[in-house]
Amino acid sequence: MATGTAIVRVPKEAQKGQVIRVQIVITHPMTPTRRDPQTGQETPGHFLTKLQLLHNNQLVSEMNMGAGVSANPFIAMPLKVESSGVVKIAYEDNRGGKWEKTAEITVK
Amino acid sequence: MDRRKFLLLSAVAVAGLTLAPATKPAFAASKVEEEVKKRLGVELKAIKETAEIKLTAPTIAESGANVPITVETDIPVDKVERLWIFVDKNPSPWVTDVKFTPQNGQVFLSTRIKMGETSNVRAILQLKDGTFVMATKEVKVTAGGCG
After folding, report:
1. With contacts defined as CB-CB under 8 Å, which chain B residues touch A74?
2. Is B112 in contact with A69 (Cβ distance < 8 A)?
3. Of A25, A47, B28, B82, which cross-links B126 as Cys (Cβ 3.0–4.6 Å)?
């Protein structure tokens, strides 16, 4: 899969007020910036810096990260659902890449 | 031993004991202490350990490139501002921080992190009242994942 593609998993249906787990997997190399100890030359890294979790376009959670998170990051976060709608994640990396991914949830 | 000698000896011993901790700050602060001070604005030593945070991580990690960690807590989400994850001996000890809001319903985070060598993993909760609480777990790493 290409860098930046993501899978977002939420339960199809939930009760009102239930706390669900949003499971996220993003394809990304997450390489750190390295400096060669001999030459002092820097190899630029490529990693995700920010991830936002939104429910019906309202910001719920914001995560900052660096290259300390494993390649192809897996993240699970809680979300309290009060109404049906769209769970969206928006994320960006240190090279200006910006992506979004959504999942739908029905609240009974 | 007569009284004079005993007094002299004990005076030396007490002086030695009090001097030992006093000389410690002369050494450079460890990397994780610097990082915590820089990002959180408090000393790592001032953060209290609490049993209210449950930090789940393997005791021995097969590979440092992929260490699954889970943080759960009984502290209600509306009292929590942010969750920080630090790994003591990583080249860059800060791993991630997550801002929580009441819409999260609870404080929970599960992810996978990299570890360079055997070290402590710290989950620090920044509370709304400005205080910090922490849970620590040592993870033994057989093959590092930062190199």
Report:
1. 68, 110-112
2. yes
3. B82
d(CA B31, CA B49): 19
8 Å CB contact of B113 and A60: no
Instruction: Give the residue among A19, A54, A92 at the shortest CA–CA distance from B99.
Output: A54
Chain B residues close to A60, C-beta within 8 Å: 101, 103-104
Q: What is the pLDDT of residues B57-96, one digit of tens each?
A: 999 998 889 999 999 999 999 999 999 999 999 989 999 9
d(CA B100, CA A53): 10
pTM attached to this predicted model: 0.82
| B chain contacts of residue A43, beta-carbon cutoff 8 Å | none
| Cα separation, B28 vs B49, whole angstroms | 23
What single letter denotes the amino acid at residue B57?
A
At A91, list the tokens: 């994320």
Bridge partners, A62 (sequence order): A52, B99
Give, in degrees to the nearest 5, the angle at Cα A76 between A73 and A78.
150
When scoring B69, B114, B117, B141 by the number of chain A Cβ atoms within 10 A, the one with the most, hence best to mutate, is: B114
| Predicted ipTM > 0.90 | no
> Contact, B86 vs B121, CB < 8 A?
yes
Distance, in Å, from the CA atom of A95 to the CA atom of A55, rounded to the nearest integer, reads: 26
